[in-house]
Structures are given as C-alpha cells and as structure tokens.
Amino acid sequence: MRDGKLAGLILLAGLARPVEDAALQQTDYIAHLKGEPGAPEQARLNQLKAEVALVKKLDPKSDNPPIALGLPTTWWLNVKGYDPPAAAKKLGIPILVLQGERDFQVTMQDFSLWKSALATTKTTFHSYPTLNDLFISGDGKGSPAEYHGPGNLSPAVVDDIAAWLSTPKH
Questions:
Q1: Which residues pair with 156 in a beta bridge?
Q2: For the whole model, what pTM was predicted?
Q3: What is the reported pLDDT for 96?
Q4: Is residue 145 left, alpha or beta, with left meaning phi > 0 and alpha meaning psi from -120 to 50?
C-alpha cells in the first residue's frame, strides 16, 4: 500500500464470470471427463441448469426462495451483476493477471475476459500451458483428482510475480 491506497493487484486464476455460470461449466466439464455422463449425472446437470436459471431470475423486488443453488438468496442478490474485470479497471492501479491453461475451474475464457476488459490499462498477463487452478504443473486435461496429490507452485509463477513486484509501476 502507498499512502493508505492499494498500489497494485495480483490475480491468480481470477474468476471473471458470474459464479453460477462457472459452477455450471465446472460441473459439466467434470461430468464429461470420461465421456458422456450417465443418467444420474445428466439428471444432476439438468437440475443444476434449472438452479442456475433460478439464480439468473432472482429479483430483489420479487418473492424469492430463501436458498438458491445452495446459498442464501440474499448472497446471490448481492453479487448479481457484479463484474470483476470492470471493478478492477475502475481501480486505476497496475494489475498482474496469471492463469493456468489446464485450469477447469477458472478457465481461459475468464483470462480472455480479463484481457479484453483490461487491455487499455497497466495490466500484465501471463498464462501457463501446463498449470492447473493451483498453479501446479500436470499433463493432459485438468481434473479434480490432481488436487489430491502433493504438488508445488510453479517456479515460473513465483518468478513472474517477483519480476512484476520489482518493476516500477509509474
């Protein structure tokens, strides 16, 4: 911080889309990892799609259910319409955006949204082809199974953060 103000922002796998959209995309991705989902998985996906549609329709002036998509409706109404890239752009500070290309939770779609929104700002972007959501290296498609084993943060990420922090941001 400088003079009590934020001097910069580092985003590692920063979600740029609505939470409910990311939740649906992640669940769909996992359900299709081994091919077409079976009937129970497809039923869960259909239920999730209906819950996401409900979240999209929530209105503070309407009679809403107390819970939607497993969270209090008041929370959903609070984040409805929140646009993280637009909010970051308004900060007017240097930003570093880092993204693992094997990340199935916060995807390259999010990275593209950050790049589009922050293209005219003091923002540095790095993506890493072999890294997942935890910035740990792996092979093939990302999957939840890789979060159960040991791993280390990629040295390239540490180096890029250190280089960004040591560069003047006038």
A1: none
A2: 0.91
A3: 98
A4: alpha
